[in-house]
Amino acid sequence: MIDRIDRRILSILQEDCTIPVAEIGRRVGLSTTPCWRRIQKLEEDGVIQRRVAILDPKKVNVKVTAFVAITTSRHNDDWLRKFADVISEFPEVIEFYRMAGQVDYLLRVAVPDIEAYDAFYKRLIAKIDISDVSTSFAMEQIKSTSQLPLSYVQTEKPRAERDDQ
Amino acid sequence: MIDRIDRRILSILQEDCTIPVAEIGRRVGLSTTPCWRRIQKLEEDGVIQRRVAILDPKKVNVKVTAFVAITTSRHNDDWLRKFADVISEFPEVIEFYRMAGQVDYLLRVAVPDIEAYDAFYKRLIAKIDISDVSTSFAMEQIKSTSQLPLSYVQTEKPRAERDDQ
DNA sequence: ACTGAAAGTGCTCTCAC
DNA sequence: GTGAGAGCACTTTCAGT
């Protein structure tokens, strides 16, 4: 389905999606047409979901990252759906996971400072009844990337190599 | 520095950076040229850091997200720098924070499954001596976005509004 | 399946206002 | 800030390998 050339294309586009197709082709050893068709297919197949601009958190005044661990006292499905919807609506919530283990849910929240987090927190609990919440703040963002590892992609060997065996 | 129109432009580009400048201009009530110039400036100023393709984690076979909480037994600066470098090198590490509070460091790791996490973990501890590690797995990704909240941006009021006052 | 060429389109970016 | 225009990159097709 995805071969090594596709993987290299994905790697390039994950890094910078403004590179012209002709240049991508050159880098992966393909001419423009097949390279363009591969990219088109990767988009059709949903491997490439979207192309977006990445902003500098500091420049848009969200310097503080908070991790919010939520433990709920077991509610029914309806409540959980409402819970998920309400929380997802907050633009400050960048990531939202249902967890295995002690903690039930984990949020990553982007805000300017601790006071803003407090205000966010108040708006959150005003909208939804949460029993147990524990917040940790990040002091420093050492790494944060939109690039997923591509080493685990199920690669189909290129035809040439397959025929060799 | 950044006014409301810039903010709307950023909001659009955070969502989809393939939209033509003319269309962005139309949406924010500007003709192509000034809109293009604003985008150019936002890039120069580093507000827009890059433009990237966002891939579907499932399609590239990283279905499991692990959060790794690391507690170190207080090392010196050199060790900490090496620690940061070694961990940052792993492409599976998508996010890496230095934390306040109980936990010293928090990683978000993307892997195909629990076995792959275990292999990753072995490679990690083989490279660096970590005393106390605690891993939690996400069962479900309810929300995950590259879009930062723009409500906190320091906005300079547009000239017209300022003059009105 | 990829190459290369080539036509058509639409966008980028500059310039004059 | 507007509007127009030149140049260019991208898209898409087609014949050929």
Automatic annotation (TrEMBL), chains A, B:
InterPro entries under this entry?
A: ArsR-like_HTH, AsnC-type_HTH_dom, Dimeric_a/b-barrel, Tscrpt_reg_AsnC-like, Tscrpt_reg_AsnC/Lrp_C, Tscrpt_reg_HTH_AsnC-type_CS, WH-like_DNA-bd_sf, WH_DNA-bd_sf
Q: Which UniProt keywords apply?
A: DNA-binding, Transcription, Transcription regulation
One GO MF term attached to the UniProt entry:
sequence-specific DNA binding
Biological process terms in GO annotation: regulation of DNA-templated transcription; response to amino acid
Domain (HTH asnC-type) spans 2-63
Task: State if Transcription regulation is listed as a keyword.
Answer: yes
Q: Which GO terms describe its cellular component?
A: cytosol
Q: Could you identify this protein by its name?
A: Transcriptional regulator, AsnC family
**Organism of provenance:** Stappia indica
